Amino acid sequence: MVSELKKEAIESFRRGELKKAYGFFRRILSENPEDKEAIYYSAVIFHRLERWRTAKRFALQYLRLFGSDPSMEEILGDVLSFEGDFKTAVKWYKKSLKHSHEGSDRVRNKLKEAQKKLEESLDKKKIAVVVAEGADAFTDDLIERLSEKYWVRKFSVPKKEYYFFFSALAVLYGRNMLKPLVVRFLFSIFPNTLKRALRWADVVWIEWASPVAVVASLLKRKKKTFVRLHRYEAFRTYSFLKENSSLINWQNLDGVIFVSESVKKIVEERGTKLPEKTVVIHNGLNLEKVSFEEKSKGFDIGWVAGIIPRKNLHLALEIMGRLVQIDTRYTLHVAGEFKDELYEIYIKHLVKEMKLENNVIFYGWVDDIDAWWKDKNYILSTSFHEGHPYNIMEAMAKGIKPVIHNFPGAREFYDDEFLFNSVDEAVQKIVEEDYDSKRYRDYVIEKDWTIEHQVKAFEEFIESL
Description:
The protein is α/β, with parallel strands linked by helices. It has three domains: 2-123, Tetratricopeptide repeat domain (Serine Threonine Protein Phosphatase 5, Tetratricopeptide repeat); 127-284 and 452-464, Glycogen Phosphorylase B (Rossmann fold, 3-Layer(aba) Sandwich); 287-449, 3-Layer(aba) Sandwich (Rossmann fold), CATH 3.40.50. The protein has helices at residues 2-14, 18-31, 36-48, 52-66, 70-82, 86-99, 104-121, 140-146, 159-174, 180-189, 193-200, 211-218, 237-240, 261-269, 313-326, 341-353, 369-373, 390-397, 423-431, 437-446, 451-464; strands at 126-132, 151-157, 203-207, 224-229, 255-258, 278-280, 300-304, 331-335, 360-364, 378-381, 401-405, 419-420. The strands form two sheets. The chain has a six-stranded parallel β-sheet with strand order 2-1-3-4-5-6, with helices on both faces. A six-stranded parallel β-sheet has the order 9-8-7-10-11-12, sandwiched between helices. The longest helix is centred in the first third of the chain and has 18 residues, at 104-121.
């Protein structure tokens, strides 16, 4: 079984079907997490896809398990160069050259380029992006573009450090078991990622209003520091529940970026006094990476998200129940894994009781979401709260018609033609004749939901600090 999977995986890889290949390797790794070939190819695949964090994880895993390998060392050089750590990138390139003659000219050129970047960056403003390991999904495009003007380095906080140091300090502080002075003392005596970032940078960007932000806000102000708050942090206890105030000392930060006006409003309505430099910068897409295709009215409805109660999938089932009464060809395609066992039981129970087994397909995790979207006519979003969701933006940029539940703050982003309040309204938007793929992509551009506009706003914010 494994040998057949591996054969299919390698053949897919050789055909350039990288995401399909990884789908096979992922199945192999689920059976044997230390399969040598699966780890090796996974590192190469994610490197080619420029999914730097995952490429780094697999390359390091390979070296830890199987020892030196010039290809893995070259990958790590590329990752560290992207992350702005040019000194460490140079070390990995040198290791790669030491262990191989094949491809040495290529690696030698990369080594020279990393050394050149290091020299050129010395006169640039230094921006440290501090983010928990695995929580950097929204940073890489920004880092790549901002690096044209600044020296940007990503500082990833390892999971153990995040939970056993930063989270522990935030919790103990929140329970009044530690005073700010003690937090500062503990921060000073223990090695940690935030300390390294503060020593290196001119400006520190903390991604997510997290326990790292709590600790940063209790330190004496030496470097310009700001936090970017997305959505879920606005409802977490470490942000807002310490004697009805915030664990984060917002006034001791130089600025805050929100991704939506509605989330900012929620925070302000709780009486939180934010820094003077508080701005809203919407998310942006790199449209060069989002393929467009003319589509038309049809029967295939896509629903994409991690499946949790907030995503409100049961509302999508109610809509489907109405649609199949009109035409049994309507199908709901669900891409995403269940994150809540009880909710999974409930949803699958509803599908059976509503006799929708032939009209609802659960795909689980989808490796190649671009290919998955190919035959879909609509994106249905049923969440009862969002920040500024990427899945809707990406679908619209592909030319897919959005049908969006009118969650609080939705009108900040979407015109009424895309919103529904009731099942009847959702059904009407799906069955009506109105469909204009070019309009949906143009809408993203007109709203300035592009990486270019997002980067410009970030630069203006950074320069204002």
